[in-house]
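Name: Ribosomal small subunit Rsm22
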Amino acid sequence: MEKNSSNREQKYGSEGGMKESRAQRFMKREKGEKAEKKAPLGRGTHRHAERRKSVFSRAEILGDKKIPDDARDIIENFGDIAADVMGLSSKQRVFLAAEIRKLSHKLTDERTTRRVGYMNDAQSVSAYISYFMWWNIVRLTRLFSSLPKKALDIPDGGIAIDIGSGPLTAVTALYLARPELRSRRITWYCMDISQNALAQGEEIFLSVAAKILSKGGKAEPWRIIRVKGAIGTEIKEKASLVTCANAFNEMIQNETMPTDFLAKKYSGTIESYLEGDGSKPATAILVEPGDPHSARFVSLMRDAFIRRGFLPVSPCPHAGECPMAGRTQGKRDGKWCNFAFSTDGAPDKLLKLSEKAGLPKERASLSFVVCRKDSAEEAEKKRAAELEKIGEERKDARLRIRIASDFIKLPELHKSGYYACSELGLLLAIDESGARPKNGESLEIPYPQGKLAKDKKSGARIVSI
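Structure predicted for Ribosomal small subunit Rsm22:
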C-alpha cells in the first residue's frame, strides 16, 4: 500500500495536477515565480492564441440521449410493469399516492423513529417501488448510459455485488442502460436486510428482462443471488464490480462515529468484496441523493478509495484533493458536488403520480463517484505513458473540467458562467463563447496561461470557455 501511495504522489501534484511538471509550472506562474518554458513561437503568436478553440471536446452526463431505444418504453411505463408484478389491485392503486406520501415522511422528517426493517412491510415496499424506485430508475439509467466503458468493465462470466440492493434498482437500471452488458453471463449478489424487497425486485428485474427479450434482444437475464444481510455480510466469490446506490444515506444517518471514520471503514469493506490480486481491474460505484450531507460522504469515500490505491473514473477530471468536498468544520459554505437535470423529460405517469402524492419534482439530482483499481498490467502501462509526458508543455495542452452547477449570472463581472471542478481546484468558468454547457458536462479547454484571477465570493480561479 505504501508503494501505491508513493506512485500516486509522483503522478499527481499536491493540488491535483494530472501531469506534475505542467501543474507545477502553472502554480509557479500563479505565485509570480519564473518557470521554465520554451522559446516564443514568433510573430503573431498572441493573435493565434486568441483564435484557439475555446472548447476542444465535451461529453454530457445525466442526459437521456444514450438511453437505448428498447429501454425507453419500459422506463415510461415502469409503474404499470411493477404494479402487475406486485399484483396490486385497483383499490390498492387508488390508495397508492397516500402510501407514497406516508413513506416519504418516514424517509425524511420521521427517519429517526423509522423501523430499520420498514421495507419488509408490504405497503412500504409497494409505495417505494411505485415512486422512489421509479425515480431512481430515471436517474440511474441516465447516469449509467453516459459512464465510460471502463467504469462498467464486467467480464463475461463475471461477478458483481449490489449493496443495499432493495428491490434491485441499480441492477435493473444497469440492464436497461447498457445493452452491451446484457449478453454477458453476469452473476449478481444482491444484498439487503429486507428479503421482501429483494424478492419483489428480482421478479421486477426478470419481467423487465423478458420485455427486452420480446423486443428482439438476444441476451438471457443475469443470474440473481439474493443475500439477506447488511454490508459486511460474507460473500465467498470476489467481484469485479460493486455498486451501492442510495444506501449509505440510510446506513449512516443515525451513526455517532465521524463520517470520515465511516468512509474509511466502508471503503475497506467494499474493497474486501473486490478482486484484489492485481490480475484484474476492480470498480466501485457509489450513488447517493444530491443533498449536502450525502455529497460530503461521497467525497470522503472518494478520498478513502484513493488512499487504497483506486483512482476516480467519473465524474472527477483529476485524482487530487476534491475542491467540492462540501461543508466542513473549516469551510461551512464549501461547494458540494452534485448533478441535476430537469424532469421535463421524465415519464408523464410518474410526474402525475408525484403531483397526486404531493411530491412534485421540477429537478432531479444525485451525487456519485466511480473508483477503479487497475490491474497490475494496466497500471504499469499508465505509469509508462505518464513518464513519457513529464516535461512536456505543448501550446495545445488541454485542461479537463467538469461543470458542477447550473447557469450562474455574475453581475459583478457583467457576465455569466458556471462552477467547475478541475485539477487546478475549483473554477469559475466564464462562458465567453456561448457554449452553454449542461450541469455535469465534461469539457476540454485550452490549458490556462499566466496568473488567473480569483472569484471573491468562492475563491475559485476564473477561466474562460
